[in-house]
Every structure is written in structure tokens, then in C-alpha cells.
Amino acid sequence: xxxxxxxxxxxxxxxxxxxxxxxxxxxxxxxxxxxxxxxxxxxxxxxxxxxxxxxxxxxxxxxxxxxxxxxxxxxxxxxxxxxxxxxxxxxxxxxxxxxxxxxxxxxxxxxxxxxxxxxxxxxxxxxxxxxxxxxxxxxxxxxxxxxxxxxxxxxxxxxxxxxxxxxxxxxxxxxxxxxxxxxxxxxxxxxxxxxxxxxxxxxxxxxxxxxxxxxxxxxxxxxxxxxxxxxxxxxxxxxxxxxxxxxxxxxxxxxxxxxxxxxxxxxxxxxxxxxxxxxxxxxxxxxxxxxxxxxxxxxx
Length: 300
Hints:
This protein has 300 residues and is α/β, with parallel strands linked by helices. It folds into two domains: 3-143 and 281-299, Winged helix-like DNA-binding domain superfamily/Winged helix DNA-binding domain (Arc Repressor Mutant, subunit A); 170-273, D-Maltodextrin-Binding Protein, domain 2 (3-Layer(aba) Sandwich), CATH 3.40.190. It contains eleven helices and twelve strands. The strands form four sheets. Strands 4-3-5-12-6 form a five-stranded mixed beta sheet, sandwiched between helices. Helix 1 packs across helix 2 (18-25). The chain is elongated.
């Protein structure tokens, strides 16, 4: 085993393609493939399966890559400590539902580390993709919520992918609205109050099951629906169309501006918000620091 081989394996996992990895590494595909096979043979593991669809990480490969990232990170720390320079970019990836506290923690991590070179990914994406990203090690951490409606399905999906959920906090449902919306004048909003207004929700792609919805109470009938893909569009429509979305109520004015407000929703429900990670993988230093930053954000 060499550090180069570990770097090759991690790069393949990140790109999901031998072709893309070879381009990124400036290495011929046959040489890259031979190097990975040598690594697999040395340890008696199958890190990747190869098919017409491309490259997929195996279950034992997920565990191996978790250790590989740890070794590479430690090697970089030694290099930085004794040679005074970090070898290559610091890399980290998070997949999340659309939560401002997750972005805030991401910003804090970067500012605290202040690396000379880095490649950080903050993927605000669909719920199913969050689970898939963490299962395939595209991301080290995923952030999503559970409640009494989706818990059985989401928990089974996590278990099937050998992932575990760790709670950060439990929130009562709130409604996000523009500060000039008629709903903003209410101290507490009832479901009947919402009926005249358009409901905004995030698109869930081909896995558009109610159980994967980012918003609770998604099964309730609504005459006016607006489906979006990003937070900026959602906030613009909240303001421009006097729309609403149901959420955790956690909002950061510095990141999201002063024009969106949260109001409690009068329902007997909850959002158990937390992070997911592989059950057997060693948590990297960056992931551990990000989790600490998340915990600090939600305590504030």
C-alpha cells in the first residue's frame, strides 16, 4: 500500500468514474485500474464494483475508504507540521436539506481552518440524494430531519445503506413567510390560515415520495403549489407571491436577509433534525470539526 494508491481510490470514489479520476490525477486509465486492483488484492477487499453503469463503492469499500481518508489526512498533517506546507487541497463535502444553520456551520469550519488551498462542497439537495451521497462517500455528512410521518421509511432507508442518524435538536414546526405577508402579523398560525396562500416546497426529483419531502405536512391538500430547487428562489417567491413554507423555524438573518420571518404553526408535530454518517466509518477530523460547529450553531 502507498499513499498514492489511497489517494487514487479516494479520487475514484469522489468522481464516481475511472475516466474522470484518471483525468483529475493526470494518470492513464490502465495504470489507475492496475493500481486499484493491486490495492484490493493486497488487502483482500473489493473497493469498487464495475458495470456498464460505471463505478460503485461496495460496503467493504466504504469502510476501507473511511480509513484511507483518515490516513491521507494524517499524512497531510505530518507534512504541514514538519515541512510547513500542506500537500494539496483540503477537501470536504456535506449534503444537506435547506437549513441556514448547516451553511453557517460550514462557514465557521472554513474560517476556523483557514486553509491555503481547499475544495469544499456544500450540497443543498434532495433528500434521497443526501442519503445516496453519504452512502457512496460523496459526502462525509448528511443533514436531514425525521418526524412521526417519515421516520419509518427514512430509518429503513438509512439502515439499508448502513447509515446512522444522530440527533442535533428537535424543533416545533414553523411557517416561513415574507415580513410583509398578512401571515406575518399573526403570533401563531393555524392550518386554516394558510389556505388562501401558495405553498412552496423543494423539488424531490424522481424520488418524489411524501416520505422524502423536506417539508412536514406535505400530504395536506393545497390548491396553490410552487415547487423550487433552491433556497434563493424559495425566499423570492415567499416575498413576491406572499407564499409560505413549513420548516424548523431556524433562520439566520445575516445569511438570509431581514425579509423572511418565522411564525409558530399550531399543530402537534415535530422535526427531529440531525446528521447521518456511515455506521462503521471512522469520522475524519474535518467531519468531527463540522459536527462540533453544527452543535455550536444549534445551541446559539
